[in-house]
Amino acid sequence: MRLRGWVALLATAAAAGCGSENDRTPAGAGQQDGGVVTGDLTVFAAASLTGAFTTLGDRFEAAHPGTHVTFSFGASSELATQIAQGAPADVFASASPATMETVTAAGEASGPQTFASNVLEIAVPAGNPAKVVGLADFARPGIKVALCAEQVPCGAAAVKLLRAVGVTAHPVTLEKDVKAALSKVQLGEVDAALVYRTDVQAAAGKVTGIEIPEAGEAVNRYPIAALAHARNAAAARAFVAYVLSADGRAVLRDAGFTLP
Amino acid sequence: MTRTAPTCQRSGLPAVLWLPAAMGLAFLVLPLAALLVRAPWRTLPGQLRSPVVLQALRLSVLSATLATAVCLLAGVPVAWVLARSAFPGLRMVRALVTVPLVLPPVVGGVALLLALGRRGVLGRYLDAWFGVTLPFSTAAVVLAEAFVAMPFLVIAVEGALRGMDRRFEEAAATLGASRWTVFRRVTLPLVAPGIVAGAVLCWTRALGEFGATITFAGNFPGRTQTVPIAVYLALETDPAGAVTLSLVLIAVSVVVLVALRGRWVGGLAA
Amino acid sequence: MTLDAVLRVRRGAFEAVVELRVAPGEVLAVVGPNGAGKTTVLRALAGLDPLAAGRVALGDTVLDDRAAGVWVPPEHRPVGYVFADHRLFPHLSAADNIAFGLRARGMRRAAARAVAAQWLARVGVAELAAVRPGRLSSGQAQRVALARALAPRPRLLLLDEPLSALDAGTRAALRTELRRLVGEYEGCCLAVTHDPLDALVLADRIAVLEAGRIVQAGTPAEVARHPRTDHVARLVGLNLYRGTGVGGAVVGGGVVGGGVVGGGVVGGGMVRLADGTELVVAEPVHGPAFVAFPPTAVAVHRSRPDGSPRNCWPATVAELEPHGSTIRVRLVGRPQAYADVTAAAVAELGLAPGRAVWAAVKATELAVYPA
Question: ipTM score of the complex?
C-alpha cells in the first residue's frame, strides 16, 4: 500500500513538473524534508545492482551538487553482517528480503521497500557451443552447468525454479556469487549457467542470454532502506526516494530489472 | 628497580621488549579467542557430525596433503637449481618462483583457468587430445593449492641448501658417490629439517587456501568444497555453522603443528 | 700402479708447480709451512680442484691430462681422501660412514656392513659401530675416517693433515696406529703435514713444499741431516745458513762476525755468508754451500771466551722459550742463531731479553754440504 502511495505521489509530481528530463530532481522528497541534500553518502548494495546503481549515483550527484556517493557492492549477506556490526553505511539495497530482515532485526533499518525484482535467465558462452535451448538441457548428460550456491539468493532462486520446472540438474560447480558464475560462462569453462537477467544484460555481447518462460516461478525481490544510524540521513532518504522515482525505475528497467 | 632487575637478568630479555612482545601476542591471539568465546558450544557436537562438515574436512586434509606432495616433488628440484647453479637470469627465475606469493589468490585462480581451463592455453590440448578437463575436479583443488603454496616450500628449502656445509658433498665424491647418490644420501638428509619445515608451511597454507581454489576448481560438496569455501558459504545463512567449521580447521592445523613441533619445525630457526 | 703426477694448480693468485712420483706401498710425506700449497696439491690429485696444466696418472690409468682434455671426476677416481676435520657424515653411524663408499660403488647393504665391521675392528673402535660422529672423540673420529677412506680399497690414499686436529696425547697414539695401517696399505700413499714428527714417523720419503714449489726431496734421514731451507731446518731443529765456501784453511783464522779474528783450523775451511759473516768449518769446501748446526752445539757465555779456535760472536738475547727439558734462546747477532741452554745456565748467566752475551760453536760441530 505504502509503496503504491509513494509511486503515485511521485508520478503525480513528475507529471506535474515541467518537462521530463531524466536528471531532474524528484520534487518531492528532498524539499519535503526541508534540508539541503549534500555531503557524502555511503550506499551498500548487492553486487547485481552494480551497473544500475552506479548510473543512479552519477545522476543523483548531478542533481544534488555537493553530494558524493560512494558504493560498496558485494554479497548481500556480507553487507548485512557488516551493517549489523556497525559499518558506516547510509543506505542498504539488498538482493533478498531475508538479508534485509537481518538488518531490520538488528534495528539498523526500518520500513524497507521493494524497488525492483530480478528473474533468472540462462547464460551461455557467445555462440552457444553446447546448443542449449532451455532449462531441460540442464539435465542433459555430459553438459557442464554452473549454478549459484544455495546459500546465496541467486542459488536459492535457481533451486526453486528447477524444482518448479521439474528438471534435475547436475552442476559441476555452485559458485559463491552470480558474478563468479557468469565469469565461468564467459571463460567458456561451463556450457550454461543460471544467472540474473540483469547480469546477462550487463555482460552485453560476452554471453548470450536465453529467456526462461517459467522464470516467474522464482523471482528475487530487492528491498531498499535508509539506515537508522545513517550519518547523512537527509541524503539517505533522498537517495531511496530517487531510486523509487520514475527516473530511478527507468534506469533499473534499462538494466533488465522487473519493476513492481 | 631491585625487584625487576633479577627477573630480567634471569631471562636475558631486555625489559623494553616485553611490552611489544605481549602486544604482538595479543594481536595474534585475540581473534582466535573471540572465535572460541562466540563458538556455539552447545550445538558443536551435532554440527561436527553433519556430513557436509565431515566431507569438507576430509577433502581439505586430503587435498592439502596431495598439494604438499606435489610441491615437494616439483619444488625441491627448483630450490636445488636456485641454490646451486649460476646462470644469467637466475635472479629472474627466483623472482618468478615467488610470484604466487604476491598474486592475490583469486588472480592466481583466474590465471590457472586461462592456462588449464577448457579453452586455456594448455588446457585446450588436454581436452582435445586426452579428454581431460581440470577445472571443477578434485585435481583442480590440488593444483590450485599447490600453486599458492609452492613458494613457501621453495624458499625454505633454498635457504636450507644454501646454509648447508658443502664439504660433506666433497667427501662423498671422494668416496665414489655419483652426483645423484650424493644428493640422495648426503644432501637431502642434511637439509631434511629445512624441507620438513617448508612442507609444514606449505601444508598449512594449502589447507587455508580459498580464492584460487574456488576460482579454478569451483565449489561442489564432496568434490571441490574445502572447509574454507564451506565457511564462506555458511556465513551467508548460518554464521554459527561458519564459526564451527573455522574452529575445526584451526584445531586440525594446531594438532598437526604441535605434533611436528620441536623435532622438525625447529629446523626453521636452524 | 705408480702415481705419476706433474701438476700446475692455481688457487686465486697462488700457483703450485709440482712433480711427484709415488710407488705402490710407498708413503710420501709432503711437508711445508701453512700456505705452501700442500692441500691444493692434494685436492688436485683427488679431482676436487681442476689443474691449470699437467698430468696425473695412476699406473696406466690417466686421471687428468690437461693437454689431452682428459679429466676423471672425483667419484670415478680410485682415490681415498682423509680430511683434517674427518668430515664424517653426521647423520650416519660410524659403521654406515665406513660402508658409504662401498655402497656408493654398488655393494649391497649387508655385505657393506660386514666389511665395515671388519674395518672398525681393525682401527680399534669395534664397539662404536652404532655411534654417530657427534659423540665420538676426535681420535676415534679420525680412526673411523681412515677406515672409511680405506674400505673401498683405493689405489691412492691421500691424507690431509690427518693428525693436526688432535691433541698431543691422542696424536701420539694415533700416529703409531696410522703408521701400522699405512704400512699395511698396498697402494700409493701421500700424506700432507706441517708436523715434522708425523713426516718422520710415517714417511718413506719426504718432499718439502714451499710457496708452491718442491725445494727438497729425499728420505727423512737425508732431509733432516741436510736441510736446504730455513723451514726444514727449523722443522728438524737446526740452525741453517747459506753461503759460499772459500776453500782451505786460513791459518791465523777466519774473520768471524764483529770483525774479531779467531784462529783458523788446520785442514779446515771457511764459509762466507751473505752478510759477510764467516764461519770456520772443519773441512774445506768450495762454491755455494749450506752450514748447519744444532742449537745444542751453541755455547752461551757472559763474556768472550778464549781457548780453542772456534766460531764465536757477540749477540743479544731476543727471547727465551721452553723447549722440552731445556730453554731455547734466540740470539740476535751475526749470525742469528738458536741456542739450547739448561734452566740452570739461564739462571747462572742471568739470561733475559736484551742481555748481551757471546755465542760460540766448535767448527767440528758445523755440518757443511754443497747447496
Answer: 0.79
